[in-house]
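dumping this here so i dont lose it
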């Protein structure tokens, strides 16, 4: 990091453990807007904060389009903070509902796996008992 809080693509990539290709994708998606010095990208503290938010949103399962929608609302001063927060809360609620459905699906799947395993173990035990009886006869 330089004295004026700017960063190179390599510095941000290393700090956030992402590839420079990912940073270029975020730039193409208009999520980051580095300055240019020739072909060199110069990222500001604003870009660094946005990158942290992008990565957090990705962990939550949001698409880049959804992140852009939130950033665009934030950038437009005409909408105001209330609209920004309402959109954010709506997105969070939508994601929470989706994750809870996934959680329920996973719980059902695990229950099914346990039942199938228990049935297989009983069947295997019956086969072993039958083998022992036929050897004894």
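and the seq i came up w/
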């Amino acid at each position: 990091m330089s004295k004026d809080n700017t960063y190179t693509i390599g510095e941000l990539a290393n700090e956030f453990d992402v590839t420079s290709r990912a940073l270029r994708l975020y730039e193409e998606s208009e999520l980051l807007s580095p300055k240019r010095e020739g072909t060199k990208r110069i990222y500001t503290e604003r870009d660094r904060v946005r990158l942290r938010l992008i990565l957090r949103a990705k962990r939550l399962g949001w698409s880049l389009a959804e992140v852009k929608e939130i950033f665009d609302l934030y950038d437009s001063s005409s909408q105001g903070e209330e609209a920004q927060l309402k959109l954010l809360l709506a997105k969070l609620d939508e994601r929470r509902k989706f994750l809870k459905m996934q959680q329920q699906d996973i719980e059902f799947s695990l229950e099914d796996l346990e039942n199938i395993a228990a049935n297989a173990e009983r069947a295997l035990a019956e086969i072993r008992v039958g083998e022992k009886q036929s050897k004894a006869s």
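The mean pLDDT is 90.
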